[in-house]
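Input (ABC transporter ATP-binding protein):
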Amino acid sequence: MIVDVQHVTKSYQGSKNILRDVSFTVEKGECLGLVGESGCGKSTLAKCLLRMEPIDSGSIQFNGQAIESLSERKLRPIRRKMQIVFQNPTASLNPKLKIKDSLLDPIEQLKGEADLNYFQFTSKKDYIRQLLEVVELPASMADRYPHQLSGGQRQRVTIARAISMEPELIVLDEPTASLDVISQGVVLELLDDLRRKLNLSYLFISHDLAAVHQMSQRIMVMKDGEVTDLFDKEDIFSDQRHAYTKELISIF
Ligand SMILES: Nc1ncnc2c1ncn2[C@@H]1O[C@H](COP(=O)(O)OP(=O)(O)OP(=O)(O)O)[C@@H](O)[C@H]1O
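Output:
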């Protein structure tokens, strides 16, 4: 088990509870899909998981270590192991930086503390070539700026950057929502491939139940800040599904 979330409650200042007694796990190498209507708390959950937002009560363990009250200093090595890929790759990349500089940013911030196994390289150039190769982009992209890439290519760059520190968990928050249907399929296949190759764990958030079904081994459904259903993907059409899950399936 890589992530263990137990009884998490979260509200924003002055708001009602956005997350209500949320519990689930993410297993090593697994993609856990997360679906639910707009505003049900999916992104809030992602932010709490990555300690970008504090929680009110409950616990979140990453590799057996409780992270909800760790100091920033103790959290640092853990942060490196958890990455997030957002919906909009244009907003995630600095327009003034060449692709190679965006890709080097995480490792340079660590100032030699990176502990990499999969990527073995002798120079920055070699590292960038490998990062681009793993997301199936030509090495020539390194010297381009984000605006000189297509949306799908830009999202591959943000994925390359997310895996550059060899994380164990990646939260994918609607990673293909801004892409056309063909690029969506290609990027999802790439992500699935990377999960197997690097033994990554994903929390894959999407409105697209078909994409979640394609990518995930288990699926979690949220409604109004609560987990209403959590099941193996083979059981999606089982009679035991929650009425709300059935409703989501019926509109697909
Ligand atoms: N920083 C914030 N301060 C106050 N309220 C917030 C904040 N961020 C989110 N919310 C509220 O929390 C609720 C859940 O939002 P969240 O973004 O987690 O939902 P979501 O399920 O990810 O939605 P979507 O699918 O539309 O992205 C919403 O009612 C939203 O208005």
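The chain has a mean pLDDT of 93.
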